[in-house]
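Hi everyone,

Forwarding the result from last night's run.
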Amino acid sequence: MMAILEFRRTSLRYRHTPYFKQLLHHLLKEKQFCIDWYTSYRYEKYYDTTYQSFSLIHPEYGPLSYLATETVINTKKGDLYLIVYNPFDEETRETFEKTTKPHKNPVRRLAPWPGKKCPVS
């Protein structure tokens, strides 16, 4: 379950790509992976992480579709809330990058994701 939870967290920002969608489609064909993947949504031991998806039409930026991930970490000075916004599509990703530039808050990519093309099946 820990491996599935880690995979879910690290792959959030790539789930909108065609490669990831195809990869997940193939992984879900494996019975145990499928069971673990959907069970991980309800894994109570890690209740401090929540996910909420949004699809909306912003008056200035147009259609946006993304997942907000909230993690609460207890510290000596109180709770620290980390909220990550993960785009579901290329248009939302471009909007997020465009809106951060004027404020000098660049999007920080913490790890590379391989630029792979989907094989023709």
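The two ends are 30 Å apart (CA to CA).

Cheers,
N.
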